[in-house]
Amino acid sequence: MLRNPDPEPSGQPQPAIYPDWESVYQDNVVGIYQLVFRKVGNAADAEDLAEEALMQTLKTLRLPAPVPTVRAYLVKTARTVLADHWRRHYAARDAANELEQLPIEIVANPNAVDRAQRLLGLLPDNFRNILELRFLRGYSVREAANELGVTESNARVLQFRALRKAAELEREVLR
Amino acid sequence: MKESADRVARFVDELLHGRRPHRFEATQEEAEAMTAAASLSAARVGADVPDQAALDRIHQRLAETLDENTVVDRRLSRRAWLRTAGAAAAAVVVGVGLDEVVRNRQESGGAGGSATLLPDSGSWRPVAAVNEIPTGHAMQVSTASLDAVIINDAGTITAVSGVCTHLGCKLQPDDANRKLNCPCHQTAFSWSGKVLYYRLKAAPANLPQIPSRVNNGQVELYIV
C-alpha cells in the first residue's frame, strides 16, 4: 500500500512512498510484466525479464523511496534488461541499441493493442492481410497461405516482408 | 530471403503457440522482423496478462532473495493479500480503517455490493482543472495517496477509485462505452463504480466513490 509519511495540512501533497519491496512488487509487477511482454511477445521470457528488472531495481534502490523514483528506475532497468536479452540471445545489436535509446515514456506506454491496430492500418493490403490472419486470427502459415491463395513458402516470405515493413513504420511513424 | 523468412516464421510460430522461442544468431533484418512480431503478439487481447502462477513464482523468488528473514505464509494467498491491500488502499483515500471497509461490504451483501465510504478526516485537494475534462469523458488522476478516475457526465463531476477492487490493477477509461476497464481480468465498471461484468469466480466489489467537488475551476478530491 502506498503511504504518505508526512501528510501536510495544506499545500502540495508529498510524493507517495514505497515502504518496502512488497509494496513495489504489488504496485508494479503486472505493469512491468506487460511492458516486457510487448518487447518479447511470449510469457516465459516476459516472466524471467520482469523478475530480473524487479530484482535489479530492488537490490539497487534503498527503500523507503518515492514512488516516481522507483518507477522511473524500474522502467529504465527493464529497458536495459530487454536490450541485453535481444543482444545475448539473437545477436540483435541494432535492435538492442534502439531499445536502450527509447524514451522512457514510450517504453512504458501501455496501449499495445491501439498501437498494433494503428500499425496494421498503415500497411499495404497484402502485408496487413497476412499479419492479421497470423496474429489476430491465429491462422497457421498453411491456413494463411490457403486463404491468400499463395504457397506456404511465399506466405512465409510475405510474412517476413510484412514484419520488416511493420518494424520500419513503427520506428518512423508511431514514435 | 527464404532462409530468413523460414527462421522468422519459426520464431512467430513459437510466439503464437505460447512457447519460449529458440535462440539463434539473427541478421539485422531478421531481428527487425522479430521485434515487430513480438509487438503484434502482445497486441492479441489478453496475451500480455500474466497468469497467477507466473506472478506467484516471481513473488516467491523475490522473497527468497530480498527478504531472507521473511517466512512466506502460504495460507494467505497472494491473491487474497492483494485484494486486502487494494481495499486498504481505497480506505486510505477517504480516511477509514480496513475494518470499516469490511463492515461496509458485509452490510451491503459482500463482494459485489456497494461500499459507501465516508471520510472522517482529510482535506480537499485540487487534482485537475475542470476544463481538462470535457463532457462525456473520464480522466485518470494520481496523487500522492491515490489513483482515481474523474468523470464528467453531462456536466456533473464525480470521482471513483481508479484501481480494480479485485487485484488492484489500474483501470482504463473507455469513454465510448462509458465504462472503466480492468486490463487484468476482463472486468469492467460503470462510471458510477458499479460492476458491469467480470470473468472471475466471484463478483468483485463495486468501486469506492471518492468525494469530489468543483472549486474555482478546479476539481477537488477529499483526500487524507
Explain what the structure shows.
Chain A has 2 domains: 17-107; 112-172, Winged helix-like DNA-binding domain superfamily/Winged helix DNA-binding domain (Arc Repressor Mutant, subunit A, Orthogonal Bundle). In chain A, helix 1 packs antiparallel against helix 2 and helix 3 runs antiparallel to helix 4 (93-101). The longest helix of chain A has 24 residues, at 67-90. Residues 1-10 of chain A have low confidence and may be disordered. Chain A is elongated. With 175 residues, chain A is mostly helical. Chain A has a two-stranded antiparallel ribbon. Chain A has helices at residues 21-40, 43-60, 67-90, 93-101, 104-107, 112-122, 125-136, 141-148, 152-172; strands spanning 17-18, 65-66. With 224 residues, chain B is an alpha+beta fold. Chain B folds into 2 domains: 2-42, no CATH class; 78-223, Rieske Iron-sulfur Protein (3-layer Sandwich). Chain B is 32% helix and 22% strand. Chain B has a 4-stranded antiparallel β-sheet, with no helix packed on it. A 3-stranded antiparallel β-sheet of chain B has the order 1-10-9. In chain B, helix 1 (2-16) packs parallel to helix 2. Classes of the chains: A mainly alpha (175), B alpha+beta (224).
Strand order of the largest sheet of chain A: 1-2
Task: Please tally the helical runs of chain A, counting DSSP H or I stretches of 4 or more residues.
Answer: 9
- Tell me which CATH architecture of the largest domain in chain B applies here: 3-layer Sandwich
CATH superfamily of the largest domain in chain B: Rieske [2Fe-2S] iron-sulphur domain
Measured by DSSP, the beta-strand proportion of chain B falls in 15-25%
Classification by helices and strands of chain B = alpha+beta
Quick one: how many beta strands of chain A?
2
Order of helices and strands of chain B: HHHHHEEEEEEEEEE
What distance separates the N and C termini of chain B?
A: 62 Å
Number of domains of chain B: 2
Q: What pattern of helices and strands is seen along the backbone of chain A?
A: EHHEHHHHHHH
